[in-house]
C-alpha cells in the first residue's frame, strides 16, 4: 500500500563545543555525547585529541579538514541514518566563527534532528590563562567579540576602529596575522600607544600556551619575536593588568554595606543604593 521507502528514524546530530584545546575543558554533557557517539566529525587538529580521548571503540571518527560543506552535510546525514548519536565537534563554542548555520540548514532540509551543546570559547580560556577579567566595575562592563577584515568582509558599521571607539574590552579572533591592522584601528579610535594588550596563543593547551603582554605600540613586534603566527586571541581592554592595581572599584555585589536579594548589609552605608547585581 505505502510505496515510500521508510528509512529508520534518524539519529540526532549534536553540534558540540569541544572547548579551546585542553580536552578537559569540554562540558560534562559534551563528553557524555562523545562517549556514546556512533560517529564523530571533528574540525581540525585543535579538537582531535578530545574526540579520540573520549570516543567509544568502534566509533567512526573523521576529520572535516579536507571536506567541503556539502561533503560534510552528506557525511552527517549518512551517519545519522545509521546511528543514534552523531557528533559534530567544533573548537570553542559552536556559535562563534564556526559555520554552524551553514551546516544546520542542509540537515534541517533533510529532516535530521539537531541540537547544539555550548563550549568554552577561546576568548574565555584566554582571559583565564592571563588571569584577566573581561569586565571590571567602573572601567568597562562590555565585551565585544570581533575580528578584523581578512578574506571575510566586515558588515557595515563593524570596522574595528568603530567598535574600538567604545573603549570597552575587545576579544579579537582570527586576526593574529593582521596585527598591524588591529593596532592601527585602535590608534585611529583614540587608544593610547601605551594602552595594554595581551595575546594568548593556544590558550589552555598543556605545554603549548604562550602569553605575550605588551602595549598597542609594542605588541606586534613582541608577537613576532615570540613567533606567534596562528591560533591566538588578541585582547585589548582598559581592564588588563588589574591584578596589580592598588586602586580598584570593588563590585557592589560583595560590598559589606550593600544589601541585595541574597544578603543584608552588615555595615551601614551613607548612601545605600538598591541595585540588581
Ligand atoms: N569557536 C571558536 C573560535 C573559532 S575561530 C571559539 O569559540 O573559540 C578560530 C580562532 O579562535 C583562532 O583564529 C583564534 O583567534 C581563536 N582560538 C581558537 N582556539 C584558541 C586557543 N586555544 N587560544 C587562543 N585563541 C584561540
Label this structure with key terms.
Methyltransferase, Cobalt-precorrin-4 Transmethylase, Domain 2, Cobalt-precorrin-4 Transmethylase, domain 1, 5-stranded parallel beta sheet, alpha/beta, 277 residues, globular, 8 helices, disordered N terminus, 10 strands, single chain
Note down, in words, how this protein is organized.
With 277 residues, the chain is an alpha/beta fold. It folds into 2 domains: 109 residues, Tetrapyrrole methylase, N-terminal domain (Cobalt-precorrin-4 Transmethylase, domain 1); 122 residues, Methyltransferase, Cobalt-precorrin-4 Transmethylase, Domain 2, CATH 3.30.950.10. 25% of the residues lie in helices and 18% in strands. It is built from 8 helices and 10 strands. The strands form 2 sheets. Strands 3-2-4-1-5 form a 5-stranded parallel β-sheet, sandwiched between helices. The protein has a 5-stranded mixed β-sheet with strand order 6-7-10-8-9, with helices on both faces. The radius of gyration is 23 Å and the shape is globular. The N terminus is likely disordered. S-adenosyl-L-homocysteine binds next to helix 5 and strand 10.
Element order: H for helix, E for strand: EHEHEHEHEHEHEHEEHE
Estimate the mean pLDDT confidence: 90
Helix content: 10-25%
Tell me the major beta sheet: 5 strands, parallel
CATH topology of the largest domain: Methyltransferase, Cobalt-precorrin-4 Transmethylase, Domain 2
Number of strands: 10
Large-scale geometry: globular
Count the helices. How many?
8
Write the CATH architecture name of the largest domain.
Answer: 2-Layer Sandwich
Number of domains: 2
What is the CA-based Rg, rounded?
23 Å
Ligand inventory? S-adenosyl-L-homocysteine
Unreliable residue stretches: 1-7
Q: How far is the N terminus from the C terminus?
A: 64 Å
Oligomer: single chain
CATH fourth-tier homologous superfamily of the largest domain = Tetrapyrrole methylase, C-terminal domain
Q: What structural class do helix, strand and pairing data support?
A: alpha/beta
At the first level of CATH, what is the class of the largest domain? Alpha Beta
Query: What fraction of residues sit in β-strands?
Result: 15-25%
Identify the strand order in the major beta sheet: 3-2-4-1-5
